[in-house]
């Protein structure tokens, strides 16, 4: 018999596609990497921020990508993988987890099936930014305090036509990280003949963002960033090689000192099993190397000046000991 605290690991998956296209584009199936790279990263960031707003810390989101090509456009196929631990239902109940599809519906990348219950009441995040057109919010009315509640938003100059959105959508619209990701997702537009973004599901066109709509969305992103009460650090997550600079022999250590290129950094390792695995191996050695996904946070003040960066290892890909004979296989990955 299952206890009230027993959990099961579950997963939700959903595919979608983004196509950048343009009527006057040559049929060369190409795109500038400087335009594509921030756009790819932006969709991952936007989906993770959306998952955080609607699911909190109850689920983690990963975004996978594989590209193919179509006539006069550059099409990118994504898969969102949502992983979570769901508590077996008890008499006390449990907060439901929004699926990957529901999150994409909330953003506006997918639309609910005809007759199905929408992921959110009110308009999607993309539609809200389009309607807002960069204008300021005059006032908001919270219609329901719960996470499934609604917010009625009055826009300056259009108070007679308030926009009703899910509160997670409104929270995204004032979330600087989500706004930056949305802005960057439209980076290719206006370059190399690209003038339109298309959302697709299984090859079927779901929606298309016109040049005028793109301008409205970008205006809302930029005005929202200017109005943001706080200025959170820019965060990027990159694959990196780190080598141990100062060995640590405490399994409870939260930060280790590493060499990162020519720099020496302190990196947060609390989301990995690096310290515990080192203790189990009998310690760590200088120049032991770790291939990791490294989160780099760069603080900025209101004038855009950058401060001291902070580092956090969010995933361990591979461990390479400085002395393989003493410490085992080159491909031992000490994942949590």
How would you describe this structure to a colleague?
This protein is of the alpha+beta class and 336 residues long. 25% of the residues lie in helices and 35% in strands. Helix 5 packs antiparallel against helix 6. The longest helix has 23 residues.
Quick synopsis:
The protein is an alpha+beta fold and 336 residues long. It has helices at residues 33-55, 100-107, 125-132, 167-173, 176-185, 211-227, 274-281, 324-327, and strands at residues 7-21, 59-70, 73-87, 137-142, 150-155, 163-166, 196-201, 204-209, 234-246, 255-260, 263-268, 289-298, 310-320. The protein is built from 8 helices and 13 strands.
- Say how many strands there are: 13
In percent, how much strand structure appears in the residues?
Answer: 25-35%
- In angstroms, what is the radius of gyration? 23 Å
Shape verdict? globular
Instruction: Give the helix proportion (percent range).
Output: 25-40%
Write the layout of secondary structure elements.
Blueprint: E1 7-21, H1 33-55, E2 59-70, E3 73-87, H2 100-107, H3 125-132, E4 137-142, E5 150-155, E6 163-166, H4 167-173, H5 176-185, E7 196-201, E8 204-209, H6 211-227, E9 234-246, E10 255-260, E11 263-268, H7 274-281, E12 289-298, E13 310-320, H8 324-327
Parallel strand pairs: 11-13
Antiparallel strand pairs: 1-3, 1-7, 2-3, 4-5, 5-6, 7-8, 9-10, 9-12, 10-11, 12-13
Helix pairs in contact: 1-2, 1-4, 1-5, 3-6, 5-6
Looking at this protein, list some descriptive labels:
alpha+beta, 5-stranded mixed barrel, disordered C terminus, 8 helices, 336 residues, single chain, 5-stranded antiparallel β-sheet
């Amino acid at each position: 018999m299952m206890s009230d605290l027993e959990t099961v690991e579950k997963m939700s998956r959903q595919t979608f596609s983004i196509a950048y296209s343009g009527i006057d584009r040559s049929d060369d199936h190409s795109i500038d990497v400087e335009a594509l790279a921030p756009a790819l990263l932006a969709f991952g960031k936007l989906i993770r921020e959306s998952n955080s707003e609607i699911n909190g810390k109850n689920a983690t989101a990963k975004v996978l990508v594989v590209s193919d090509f179509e006539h006069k456009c550059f099409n990118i196929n994504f898969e969102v993988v949502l992983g979570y631990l769901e508590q077996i239902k008890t008499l006390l109940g449990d907060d439901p987890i929004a699926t990957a599809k529901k999150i994409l519906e909330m953003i506006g990348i997918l639309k609910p099936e005809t007759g199905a219950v929408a992921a959110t009441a009110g308009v999607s995040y993309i539609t809200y930014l389009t309607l807002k057109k960069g204008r300021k919010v005059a006032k908001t009315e919270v219609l329901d305090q719960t996470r499934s509640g609604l917010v009625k938003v009055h826009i300056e100059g259009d108070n007679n036509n308030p926009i009703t959105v899910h509160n997670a959508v409104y929270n995204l619209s004032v979330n600087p990280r989500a706004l930056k990701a949305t802005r960057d997702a439209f980076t290719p537009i206006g370059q190399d003949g690209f003038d339109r973004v298309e959302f697709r599901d299984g090859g079927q066109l779901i929606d298309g963002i016109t040049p005028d709509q793109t301008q409205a969305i970008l205006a809302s992103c930029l005005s929202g960033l200017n109005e943001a009460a706080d200025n959170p650090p820019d965060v990027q997550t990159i694959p990196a090689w780190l080598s141990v600079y100062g060995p640590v022999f405490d399994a409870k250590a939260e930060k280790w000192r590493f060499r990162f290129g020519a720099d020496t950094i302190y990196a947060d390792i609390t989301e990995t099993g690096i310290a515990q695995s080192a203790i189990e191996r009998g310690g760590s050695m200088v120049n032991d190397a770790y291939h990791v996904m490294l989160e780099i946070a760069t603080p900025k003040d209101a004038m855009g000046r950058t401060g001291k960066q902070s580092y956090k290892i969010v995933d361990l890909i591979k461990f390479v000991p400085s002395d393989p004979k003493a410490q085992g296989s080159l491909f031992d990955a000490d994942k949590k």
